[in-house]
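Entry 14. Structure prediction run on the chain below.
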Amino acid sequence: MYAKTDIVYLNDFDIDRYIVLDENQKRDLKNLLLNIIRKEHLVNVIHLLDFIEVRGAEHGIQNMSNVNDVITANAGGFRSYFDANYQMGYRYNRKPKIDKELVKY
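Output returned:
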């Protein structure tokens, strides 16, 4: 296997079209995106994509095509996270209902 940086481009060949994620990488990306949604209190996919465009590199996300593929393949799970953030944000004004000081992990 070659590193992407070792590949010489000819005639503007788009190597990213041929790089695919394996199942473990897809699962890791899905979990990363769900954690971002939860921690950043994002309420819809547009907010998530905007966040990824601005701060995705900080989280190691380089390819928006992979992000879109993972979101599309797991739409139900993402919808649950967005709905939960929406409900928490608008029903409870983002006040946590669980005292994190009392909860021991």
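Helices lie at 23-40, 45-55, 64-73, 75-91.
Filed with the rest of this week's runs.
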